[in-house]
Design goal:
It comes from Roseovarius aestuarii. This is Tellurium resistance protein. Keywords: Membrane, Transmembrane, Transmembrane helix. With 152 residues, the chain is mainly α. Helices cover 74% and strands 0% of the residues. Helix 1 packs antiparallel against helix 2, helix 2 runs antiparallel to helix 3 and helix 3 packs across helix 4.
């Protein structure tokens, strides 16, 4: 990775902000899909940070080529956001259950983390949520490409 890839650019900033907004909105759409009484804690805030990182590291570094490729970059950024969110949130849930002594050992806890991630992933199969993620990813890619051309 060239040193210039680590420098802040308008495209990275725009992509990070856009994916952070999408992460917050998608988190709000996800909440009703969970059982009543679920303690979400810092759910939205963690997902916003993951959106910022995904926008900066995934989408922002893939702009400056063409608008067609920016669609792909935006969708890749959303996919990274979903994978990272599932991983972090399932890890958090597993740790919460581990502190309640629900597992016999560390291997059982790690296996449970993957089961929790699959459960969360199945809950993501909601039409409105999928549309928000797909359209948001495309808009993120296009806006970051526009920022790359406008301010570079």
């Amino acid at each position: 990775m060239p040193i210039t890839d680590r420098m802040p650019t308008a495209a990275k900033i725009v992509a990070a902000i856009c994916l952070a907004i999408i992460a917050w909105y998608a988190s709000e759409l996800f909440r009703p899909l969970m059982p009543d009484g679920t303690d979400f804690g810092w759910f939205n805030e963690v997902n916003v940070v993951l959106g910022l990182l995904s926008g900066w590291l995934v989408v922002g570094t893939r702009t400056g080529r063409s608008y067609f490729e920016s669609f792909s970059a935006g969708l890749t950024g959303v996919a990274a956001l979903v994978v990272w969110s599932l991983t972090v949130q399932s890890l958090n849930e597993m740790l919460k259950l581990a502190l309640q002594r629900r597992y016999e050992g560390p291997v059982e806890a790690i296996v449970a983390m993957f089961e929790i991630a699959v459960d969360f992933g199945l809950r993501l199969l909601n039409f409105e949520l999928i549309v928000v993620l797909l359209v948001g990813g495309i808009i993120t890619g296009v806006l970051s490409e526009w920022a790359s051309r406008r301010w570079s």
